[in-house]
Specification:
The complex is a heterodimer. By secondary structure, chain A is an alpha+beta fold. Helix content of chain A is 53%, strand content 18%. In chain B, the strands form 2 sheets. Chain B has a 6-stranded mixed beta barrel, surrounded by 4 helices. In chain B, strands 2-10 form a two-stranded antiparallel sheet. The chains are: A alpha+beta, B alpha+beta.
Chain lengths: 429, 383
């Protein structure tokens, strides 16, 4: 009989029930969309912040002081990193978080008129196939996203090969020597001469405007530095630093075993640096504070903002559902009065009403969940151009929210109905 | 009793007598209005607040000498062109080659308060330089010379003067107390830092600067207009933008704003539909009443106008309540997230009220129309 009554309500009053289901679906979709976006916003914004360039630099252990401090010429400082070890960066614990990296080797080259310029060898859009099967295009094309190409085009390393006699020059050099894309440039280095064709002129708005960039192997060949690099810039997705990370950055050995595990297995800039130092022989990896710190601050603020907006919309969704459930239960006062008049117990009445609403809520909630997932994807694609990853934890949160809200929403209304005396209700007062 | 009076009386009576149900409706409208005004306020405030966060990336404009030398007067003239509200910090720098333990090091003289503002990412172990006779050393310098905080170091400087025959260069030497070690992960770690006055004292030369870093809040357009203004009106200063910072900031900020906009639209759309369904439910419930009115001879137009009057009143109350609550919410968010107050946007109040009135009216109009079209006898009979 109970089932039959419920079926009766669901089928005969399907319009009203559909409305309740619709509202619950709206609330649930709002909750799902906001929760998914909120949980994923950190990763997405982190990706966007990669436009600021590398947040970790790796240099040889002793060169870090020598080269910069004494202005020693490239070849004589004597400490370099090994190019063959580059691939190891993608094998560390947080390899997945390393989105981009590029090696650099810099040297001075003499032009035909005797003037010296700085030539830097690097990757442009170097294609790496990792043993893990991952494919990656890394290099300055993505790590210097703020470069404005004022003439010509980016050097395309993939089609030209990494020994190509091509280069890109800064706008400062272009103006000073009157060089333009298509022109050739004769450079003499420490060991050999090379004639390079300019493929593009860039405007970096800084010191790099007076530098020539060429493929890594080209520069290594004429500077007599085969297989050697003098720095690596790494762009990694990191977690904002906290007190533990700061302590660990100073001295990892000061941590307890448990703290060390936590630190090592969290993507702090300092732990990623530590792991890079483990795989690259004789290297010092340090976070670029200008980028790393600001990233942390912006990430934290964005996440907090999204959390608060999510809370507001969750409250909104909850109250909206509550409201409609209350309104629709109160509407059925005469039906409930009739039930009571023919002898239904209060418990039976409220059980009946709640079960009906509950069944409706399940359908509404499921529909809403998928709708919300759709909304989240729309937001992800329009704003970030990539899909929002669905976190499994969203499902239980939304489910619990829908159940609690519908049950609580119907309680005040049911209590009010139960207080009514049947004859008054039936009489229509 | 006039017609208007009766109209007002019927509306207020229906609101007061059906207190609980009207409260439900009012609550839902107020929630909708709160979300509207709160989110829109946040949306408009995000660029400003986030822009301030982006100043963490440091200087986005630099002044260099357009002619021969940059002086502090030139810098002052240049910064005067920038609205003082937009200017986050200004740090003049002067670099000189000095020697520590007889090894060459670059010494930078700057205004410490300015450097703190333009380079918030500098991590200083120990203290910032606060008085004359103190220096901060970069982490690399500290490591290679084994310098420790609290110790004193001798810095010597060779004056660049033309020597007459038989003269020898006399080095200037000063002792400085190391108060802090600077970590940045960049080339700053290779320098030592002191106040401009100390550097002038050491080198016996005053006034010239090499570069001045500025941190200016504002989008690329604002920065470009400042740059052009300064370049055209102050001939001795060449202002340039730090493309790495400005270009990236624009990219990220645009995305963030788009995110908040889209979230606002989705939340608003869903909340408005919620309000609409609640209003529909509340009105549908009163089909009997509508039938009764029609049975005693009320024309459709008067029924509709009375219900509309109720809706307008509800929308108005909800809108006002929502404007206030929404502002309070936005204020809380702003204080919590960005630790700064939000400015009250007066135009948002009428907009919120208008939108809530419109949504309430529209959502009650449909069920009222369908109710008035039905034969009163059928409605009253309960079919």
């Amino acid at each position: 009989m109970f089932l039959r009554m419920i079926r009766g309500t669901l089928f005969r009053q399907w319009k009203k029930m559909l409305m309740i289901a619709f509202t619950i679906a709206l609330g649930a979709s709002l909750a799902t969309a906001m929760l998914s976006v909120m949980l994923d916003v950190g990763d997405k914004v982190n990706q966007e912040l990669k436009t600021y360039g590398a947040n970790i630099t790796v240099v040889p252990k002793s060169a870090s002081v020598l080269n910069n401090l004494y202005d020693v010429e490239g070849g004589s400082a004597g400490t370099y990193l090994d190019e063959a070890e580059l691939g190891k960066i993608k094998t560390i614990f947080w390899a997945f978080n390393i989105v981009d990296f590029a090696p650099f080797v810099s040297t001075t080259a003499t032009l035909d008129d005797g003037s010296e310029i700085t030539a830097v060898g690097s990757w442009f859009n170097h294609h790496i196939s990792l043993p893990t099967g991952e494919e990656l295009d890394a290099g300055v094309a993505s790590m210097r996203s703020w470069w404005e190409i004022s003439e010509g085009a980016w050097l395309d390393e993939q089609s030209a090969g990494d020994q190509a006699d091509l280069c890109m020059i800064g706008i400062g050099l272009s103006e000073k020597y009157g060089l333009h894309p298509g022109d050739t440039l004769h450079l003499s280095g420490a060991s050999a001469d090379r004639t390079l064709k300019i493929s593009g002129v860039f405007d970096a708005g800084g010191e790099e405007d007076d530098i020539l960039y060429a493929p890594l192997n080209t520069v290594q060949a004429f500077a007599d530095l085969e297989g050697k690099i003098d720095s690596i810039e790494v762009s990694a997705l990191t977690t904002p630093d906290n007190e533990l990370a700061e302590r660990a950055a100073k001295d990892p050995s000061s941590l307890t075993v448990a703290q060390y595990e936590t630190w090592y297995c969290t993507a702090y800039a300092s732990s990623i640096c530590y792991q890079i130092q483990e795989v690259i022989t004789d290297s010092v990896a340090s976070p670029v504070r200008q980028v790393a710190d600001s990233e942390g601050a912006i990430l934290n603020k964005t996440q907090l903002l999204m959390i608060l907006i999510t809370i507001l919309s969750l409250i909104g969704a909850a109250l909206g559902i509550c409201n409609l459930v209350t309104a629709s239960v109160m509407e059925r006062s005469s039906e409930i009065g009739l039930l009571k008049a023919i002898g239904a117990q209060n418990a039976a009445v409220s059980g009946l009403v709640q079960t009906e609403i509950f069944i409706t809520a399940i359908f509404g909630g499921i529909a809403g969940f998928f709708a919300g997932w759709g909304f989240a994807q729309i937001i992800g694609h329009t704003v970030f151009g990539s899909a929002i990853t669905m976190r499994p934890m969203v499902i239980p949160i939304v489910a619990v929210l829908v159940v609690i809200v519908t049950l609580i929403g119907s309680i005040p209304a049911i209590r009010m109905l139960l207080r009514l005396s049947p004859c008054e209700v039936l009489h229509g007062r | 009793m006039t017609k208007q009076k009766m109209f007002v009386r019927m509306i207020t009576a229906s609101l007061v007598r059906r207190r609980s149900r009207m409260l439900v409706a009012l609550l839902s409208i107020a929630i909708g209005a709160t979300i509207l005004s709160g989110l829109v306020t946040i949306y408009y405030d995000v660029p400003r607040q986030m822009g301030a966060e982006f100043r963490n990336y440091g200087a986005n404009m630099i002044f260099t000498a357009a002619e021969d030398a940059l002086t502090s007067e030139d810098v002052a003239q240049g910064t005067a062109m920038i609205d003082s509200q937009d200017l986050v910090g200004c740090a003049p720098y002067r670099y000189e080659n000095v020697r520590v333990h007889e090894s060459p090091v670059v010494a930078a003289g700057t205004n410490m308060e300015g450097a703190k503002a333009t380079s918030p990412y500098w991590h200083v172990e120990g203290e910032w330089v606060s008085q004359s006779g103190q220096i901060m050393v970069g982490a690399n310098v500290a490591e290679s010379f084994r310098l420790k905080i609290g110790t004193t170091v001798t810095v010597s400087y060779t004056p660049e003067i033309e020597l007459k025959k038989g003269e020898t260069v006399v080095d200037e030497q000063r002792d400085y107390e190391i108060v802090g070690i600077l970590e940045t992960g960049g080339s700053e770690e290779d320098y030592i830092y002191m106040s401009l006055e100390d550097l002038a004292g050491l080198t016996k030369k005053e006034g010239t600067l090499d570069v001045c870093e500025l941190s200016v809040s504002g989008g690329t357009d604002v920065l470009n207009s400042y740059m052009e203004k300064i370049n055209s009106t102050v001939p001795s200063v060449k202002a340039r933008l730090v493309k790495r910072v400005t270009a990236s900031e624009t990219t990220v900020l645009t995305k963030l704003q788009a995110l908040v906009l889209l979230v606002t639209i989705v939340v608003l759309a869903l909340t408005m539909i919620c309000v609409a369904t609640t209003m529909t439910a509340v009105v549908t419930e009163r089909r009997k009443e509508i039938g009764l009115r029609k049975a005693i001879g009320a024309p459709n137009s008067s029924i509709i106008s009375e219900f509309m009057g109720e809706s307008v009143l509800l929308g108005l109350l909800g809108g006002i309540l929502g404007s206030v609550l929404g502002f309070l919410f936005a204020q809380r968010v702003s204080l919590h997230v960005f630790s700064s107050a939000i400015s009250f946007r007066f135009w948002l109040v009428p907009v919120t009220i208008l939108v809530s009135v419109a949504v309430t009216c529209l959502s009650s109009l449909l069920p009222i129309r369908s109710a008035t079209e039905i034969d009163p006898a059928l409605v009253l009979k309960g079919e």
